[in-house]
Design brief:
ATP hydrolysis activity, six-stranded mixed beta sheet, membrane, 38% helix, ATP binding, cell membrane, ABC-type amino acid transporter activity, four-stranded antiparallel beta sheet
Amino acid sequence: MSDPLLRVEDLHKSYGDETVLRGIDFELERGDVEILSGPSGSGKSTLLRCVNRLTEPDSGTIYLDGERVSGAGTDVNELRRQVGMVFQDFNLFLHLTAAENITLGLRRVKGLGKAEARERAMEHLDRVGLADQAGSYPAELSGGQKQRVGIARALAMDPKLMLFDEPTSALDPELVGEVTSVMRELADEGMTMLVVTHEMGFAREAASRMMFLDQGQIVERGPPEQLFQHPEQARTAEFLQRITQLHGGEST
């Protein structure tokens, strides 16, 4: 049996006196879509940022495709070539067009020539339905369009794993669907994804598994139908009921 794509072992992270992650252990198989859910401050975003080492864990080990990618002697840049990340606040360069936001990494990190980088950028803008916005600057795009450019930028690097940190939380409600639709298509294509989101409709439809975190620990983990319909922990049931009422259980 092959190694899981991602393996996280005994991950701990504190900020001063505040302990954010307390011994996180899990594996993510190729093609899985895992939703991280839990109250604010439960460690979801910190866990995501530790996986691609935007935040360095205090202890624990992370393996990607069977190789250790955390700790001394590992190459953080090599890790980030293999792990794409989509941020809550888009993180686009405002002085670059949509296409240029994508070609920048392709040229600097992948070493592609100008023409090849442009071709790949256009291919991925088309993939997220934005080929006609290649020459637009972020200020000229809606929030949903900016986030789709962010997704295209991450995909263009040909990652093994995609991380999404609340990709729709900064969007107006009517724009959420255009982003979750792209994410559902990626899931259908077999992209391995680790997603922090409150969009429970997307979780029900696209997730292989859900992980409920509270106070830096995994409280419960299993298929979406288990956590929604037959949660083992009262804390899980209470949170999911509340978040579904707030954000809706049906897809936008």
